[in-house]
Amino acid sequence: MVEARITVNGKSTPISPAAPHTTVLDFLRERGFTGSKEGCAEGECGACSIMVARPGVEQPTDWVAVNACLVPVAALDGQEIVTAEGLGTLDATGAPTELHPVQREMAVRGGSQCGYCTPGFICSMASEYYRPGRCPSAVGEDSAVVDSAAVADSAAAPPHSHDGEHGPNGFDLHALSGNLCRCTGYRPIRDAAYALGAPDADDPFARRREQAAPAPVATEYTRDGRTFRRPASLADAVALLRERPDAVLVAGSTDWGVEVNIRARRAEYAIAIDRLPELRELRIAPGHIEIGAAVPLTEIERRLDGGVPLLSELFPQFASRLIRNNATLGGNLGTGSPIGDSPPALLALGASVLLASADGEREVDLADYFTGYRQSLRRPDELIRAVRIPLPLAPVAAFHKIAKRRFDDISSVAVAFALDIEDGTVRAARIGLGGVAATPIRARDTEAALIGQPWSTDTVERAARLLQAEGTPMSDHRASAEYRAAMLGQSLRKLYAQTTEAVLS
């Protein structure tokens, strides 16, 4: 095997002697890149944010912001990253000579005070700065002098330019939803984001987007008796998993990274499946949509482009953009958490899971997949290859997440609806629930009570009382059992109100 290396700010650097579980954040700081900070070690604060060159959706390369505190550095073997130190213009000795436009706007608009969170904000902001189609201004315009008010008045401004979550320059504030500041306040940071124009024509990071991102590298990295493996193909991965069924499967590492940091878990053997080509496909066939288990959620959102409305409602409420840039459907299902956000939506969509092993592949209805708390039908020698969603989709769909915060929070209760209502009668119904049992579940009794009945106040009220009795909710620090039950019934009433308003409008 070739020596494991990572390109940091344009310079190839060996990963050795870092341990296989060492995070990218610790790796960087040990080498003097101290801009990235550890604020939470759980992927919630964004102080550790860096940019990674990834295969693009609309261009050869996308600059993607991720949490360096969660990703093992061995997972970036052969990859290319940029830290806040690498954004500005550097001289031959590596000393900064000129600020990057994002850094400049943060400075002049007072977006930084203590500075602890600033490098993370800057990397997340720079990733959005380089998002294709983000700014209506022509490439080559001086980003330091773009008049954002003029952009807002321009006929070329994007259609969402006047909503509360996008700037007049197309900047999506969700790009910063995983970054926290505790002293400056967010208005000057938002002002800096909204002042950014298009990158200059000679911007090196803009030009880098036109070249292919680094290809996946087969990796076998062993230190101190622990091994990190990245197989080259799915066949290699399942063969390896048969030999080592005790191995930890690593995709986006948004869950495993927390286990490493907070609970000091150490894997004797880890197998990375995040870059397997067979797990990164998204196909729309005549009878179904198949989503690879290792496609990051942000990429799914962009590639589907609203084609699955229920998932379009789910994604903005799933953690933060920083997490969604790495998190996968396979990982969310693989952990088996009863409060994962995607299982209720996928249950409502009637999804199935494709499980691959050295013996071949089998398809399992997601409603049958979970067998107990963090347990499933998946065997130790199997991995999730893809999720399959049948077509056509139900015309009425909604995802309701009840949590203490609107964004970037863990669900107390999650409810997903997929209904077929024809001529005022419910012809079909699927309802997925999270947070009310040891596993995500279908609300079977409520579904049966709706099917064949008129979509009316009386029907909904009877069904809402049944829905409140579904599952076995418990009381914990997020919500009481009584509250969880009440929110189930209220979600159905809310859906009815929303559909009635849509008809009346």
Shape, per Cα inertia axes? globular
* Percent in strands: 15-25%
Rg, rounded, reads: 23 Å
Structural class: alpha+beta
Parts with pLDDT < 50 across at least 5 consecutive residues? 137-161
For the sheet with most strands, the description reads: 5 strands, mixed
Strand order of the largest sheet: 2-1-5-3-4
Describe the structure.
The protein is α+β, with helices and mostly antiparallel strands and 505 residues long. Helices cover 28% and strands 22% of the residues. The protein is built from 17 helices and 22 strands. The chain has a 5-stranded mixed β-sheet with strand order 2-1-5-3-4. Strands 12-13-18-14-15 form a 5-stranded antiparallel β-sheet. The protein has a 4-stranded mixed β-sheet with strand order 8-9-11-10, covered by helices on one side. Helix 2 crosses helix 5 and helix 16 packs antiparallel against helix 17. The longest helix is centred in the last third of the chain and has 24 residues. The protein starts with a strand and ends with a helix.
Outline of the structure:
The chain is an alpha+beta fold and 505 residues long. Helix content is 28%, strand content 22%.
